[in-house]
Design a protein that fits this description.
With 252 residues, the chain is of the alpha/beta class. Helices cover 38% and strands 16% of the residues. It is built from 10 helices and 8 strands. The radius of gyration is 17 Å and the shape is globular. Bound molecules: pyridoxal-5'-phosphate (PLP).
Length: 252
């Protein structure tokens, strides 16, 4: 049976995940040591009260993957009042006709799902209309590392070109990193997750070709089932929902 909200202790769930992040960070090979991976708490389908609870426990970065849900939550009166320093990551598929719903949102911090040039160009053009003109909007290039037709993301063969486009043609955007979702349910007894290895290879290639330090381009990979493994393979930004907030009632 699914746990009801009152049975889920968000504070404890958060604490457990942070401890596991710390443990996994220690196991990284020397090349990945340094920065503690950032936890993005994914709150899709979860109520505002849980967001506030996690915020009060110290969490600042939150992720949503549906435009309408993010619009509702980012504008929620209680969140605006009680979570003044919240940082929203948009982690879902962004259609170009929805850009103008997302860009004006209070406390929008990052769009992790830039997956083609048209989208990048449009976000770049529109950001100054809404954002602070002195700040660039953080973006990540989403990569379809598993080559699944149903998944969004640019193919690995196009990551350098798309990253170059953002760097050279999108002065209002800041290229923060690369992101992948990857194959669901990968069995770790088959060895390291190939999606994570591929994303790191894409990062190394982008850094080499565009003359960026590898520490200056982050990797967003790893969710509830595999974030520790992702950290060991170099992830610096993990997106975790159900391990903190409980199982979602609807499949998303
Ligand atoms: C839902 C979601 C997550 C979090 O998934 P959990 O398995 O609940 O941790 C991470 N990333 C994306 C893009 C998601 O849509």
């Amino acid at each position: 049976m699914l746990k009801t909200m009152s049975e889920i202790n968000v504070k404890l769930g958060l604490k457990n995940v942070l401890t596991r992040i710390e443990e996994a960070s220690k196991k990284r090979s020397p090349e990945f040591q340094g920065k503690t991976p950032q936890l993005v708490a994914v709150t899709k389908t979860k109520p505002v009260e849980m967001i506030i609870e996690a915020y009060n426990a110290g969490q600042r970065h939150f992720g949503e993957n549906y435009v309408n849900e993010l619009v509702e939550k980012a504008n929620n009166k209680d969140i605006l009042e009680k979570c003044k320093d919240i940082k929203w990551h948009f982690i879902g598929n962004l259609q170009t006709n929805k850009i103008n719903k997302v860009l004006p949102l209070p406390n929008l911090y990052m769009i992790e799902t830039i997956d083609d040039e048209k989208l990048a160009a449009k976000v770049n053009t529109n950001w100054p209309k809404y954002g602070n003109p002195d700040t660039k909007l953080n973006v990540m290039v989403q990569v379809n590392t598993s080559a699944e037709e149903a998944k969004n993301g640019t193919p690995p063969s196009n990551v350098v070109e798309l990253s170059r486009f953002v760097l050279e043609n999108c002065p209002n955007l800041r290229l923060h990193g690369l992101m992948t979702i990857g194959l669901f349910g990968y069995d770790l007894s088959n060895g390291p997750n190939p999606d994570f290895i591929l994303l790191k290879q894409c990062r190394d290639k982008v850094c080499q070709e565009l003359n960026i330090g590898t520490k200056d381009l982050e990797l967003s990979m790893g969710m509830s089932d595999d974030f520790e493994h992702a950290i060991e393979l170099g992830s610096t930004n993990i997106r975790v929902g159900s391990s903190i907030f409980g199982v979602r009632e609807t499949k998303t």
